C-alpha cells in the first residue's frame, strides 16, 4: 500500500478505476492533501473514503478542498431562496421533492451533459442504507476510450450527440403523456462531442442515459452506436462497484466516469448526501 507522509494512505481497488483512501477526518478537512487528491481523482476516477463519517458541514468543507463548491444542479433552493450545498439523494418522495426524477440515477449517466460546463466531481456520503441493493457503480470512460480499436476511434472522431432531459425522461417513462413530453422537450438539451478531448490531452467517451441521437445518422444507426458504446464502456474491466457502509464517502471525476446506483426499494430509507465541485472545462 503506497503511503504519503503519515496522514494519507491509499490502495488501488482495480487496475483502471477506484482507489481507497485511509486518513483521519482532521487531515482530510485541513486541505493539506487537496492537490494530491485532485491529481489522484483525475488518474483513478473514483476515491473511496471508508467510514470517515463527515457531518454535512464537514462534507462541505472537504468538498471545498478539492475545488470550487458548486450549487448549480442541486435541484431547488432552501427556505429564503438560499442555495444549498448538500442535496439529499432519496427515491422517497416524502424525503426529496425530486425523488421521482431521481429514478434516472439507476441508469448509467454523466451529470451535466446538457450544460456547457459539467460539474468536475461529485462527493457522496452514506447516511442510511437499504437492506438490499443500493450499491453504486462507476465506469471509466477514459479507459473505455483507450481500449477501443484504432479503427473505431477514427470512425467516431468528430461525431456529435444531442443530450437532453427529454431522452432521460423517456428512459424512465417510455409513455409520457403529451403534457409531460412537452415539458421535457422544453427543458435543456445540448449537442456534445461523442469523444471528449480534455485540456490535458486525454480522451473519454460521452455516452449514457441522456444521449438521444447522433447527429447525421439514421435513428436505428444512431441507437446502435450509442447502445454499443455504452455497453463497451460499462464492461466489468472498466467498472468499480462499491458496497456502502454508513459513514462511507465517495468522490468521483464526473468528467471521466459514468455512474449509476443499483436498484433498491424507494421505501427502504436509503439516504445519501451529495455535494459537488464546480466544473472547469466544457466538453466541446
Report a brief summary of the structure:
By secondary structure, this protein is α+β, with helices and mostly antiparallel strands. It contains eight helices and 17 strands.
Q: Describe it for me?
A:
The structure is a single chain. The chain is an alpha+beta fold and 284 residues long. It has 2 domains: 3-99 and 115-140 and 241-277, Double-stranded beta-helix (4-Layer Sandwich); 141-233, no CATH class. It is built from 8 helices and 17 strands. The N and C termini lie far apart (38 Å). The mean pLDDT is 92.
Pick out its properties.
284 residues, alpha+beta, Double-stranded beta-helix, 9-stranded mixed β-sheet, 8 helices, 26% strand, globular
Radius of gyration: 19 Å
The total of beta strands comes to 17
Strand content: 25-35%
CATH architecture of the largest domain: 4-Layer Sandwich
How many H/I helices?
Answer: 8
> How confident overall, as mean pLDDT?
92
What is the CATH superfamily label of the largest domain?
A: Clavaminate synthase-like
Structural class, from helix and strand content?
Answer: alpha+beta
Helix content: 10-25%
User: Could you describe the largest sheet, including whether it forms a barrel?
Assistant: 9 strands, mixed
Q: What is the CATH C-level name of the largest domain? A: Alpha Beta
In CATH terms, what is the fold-level topology of the largest domain? Double-stranded beta-helix
Strand and helix order: EEEHHEHEEEEHHEHHEEEEHEEEE
Distance from N terminus to C terminus (CA atoms, Å) equals 38 Å
Poorly predicted regions? none
Query: What's the overall geometry?
Result: globular
How many domains, as an integer? Answer: 2
Amino acid at each position: 500500500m503506497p503511503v504519503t507522509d503519515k496522514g494519507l494512505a491509499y490502495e488501488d481497488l482495480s487496475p483502471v478505476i477506484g482507489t481507497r483512501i485511509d486518513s483521519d477526518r482532521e487531515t482530510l478537512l485541513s486541505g493539506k492533501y487537496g492537490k494530491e487528491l485532485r491529481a489522484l481523482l483525475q488518474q483513478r476516477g473514483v476515491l473511496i473514503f471508508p467510514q470517515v463519517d463527515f457531518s454535512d458541514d464537514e462534507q462541505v468543507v472537504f468538498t471545498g478542498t478539492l475545488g470550487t463548491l458548486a450549487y448549480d444542479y442541486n435541484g431547488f433552493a432552501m427556505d429564503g431562496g438560499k442555495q444549498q450545498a448538500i442535496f439529499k439523494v432519496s427515491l422517497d418522495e416524502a424525503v426529496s421533492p425530486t425523488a421521482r426524477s431521481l429514478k434516472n440515477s439507476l441508469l448509467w449517466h454523466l451529470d451535466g451533459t446538457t450544460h456547457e460546463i459539467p460539474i468536475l466531481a461529485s462527493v457522496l456520503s452514506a447516511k442510511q442504507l437499504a437492506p438490499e441493493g443500493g450499491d453504486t457503480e462507476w465506469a471509466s470512460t477514459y479507459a473505455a476510450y483507450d481500449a477501443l480499436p484504432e479503427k473505431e476511434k477514427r470512425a467516431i472522431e468528430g461525431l456529435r450527440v444531442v443530450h437532453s432531459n427529454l431522452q432521460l425522461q423517456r428512459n424512465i417513462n417510455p409513455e409520457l403523456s403529451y403534457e409531460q413530453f412537452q415539458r421535457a422537450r422544453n427543458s435543456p438539451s445540448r449537442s456534445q462531442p461523442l469523444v471528449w478531448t480534455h485540456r490535458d490531452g486525454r480522451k473519454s467517451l460521452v455516452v449514457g442515459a441522456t444521449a438521444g441521437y447522433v447527429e447525421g445518422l439514421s435513428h436505428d444507426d444512431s441507437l446502435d452506436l450509442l447502445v454499443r458504446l455504452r455497453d463497451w464502456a460499462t464492461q466489468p474491466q472498466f467498472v468499480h462497484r462499491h458496497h456502502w457502509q454508513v459513514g462511507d464517502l465517495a468522490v468521483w471525476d464526473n468528467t471521466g466516469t459514468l455512474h449509476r446506483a443499483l436498484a433498491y426499494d424507494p421505501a427502504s430509507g436509503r439516504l445519501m448526501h451529495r455535494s459537488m465541485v464546480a466544473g472547469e472545462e466544457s466538453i466541446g
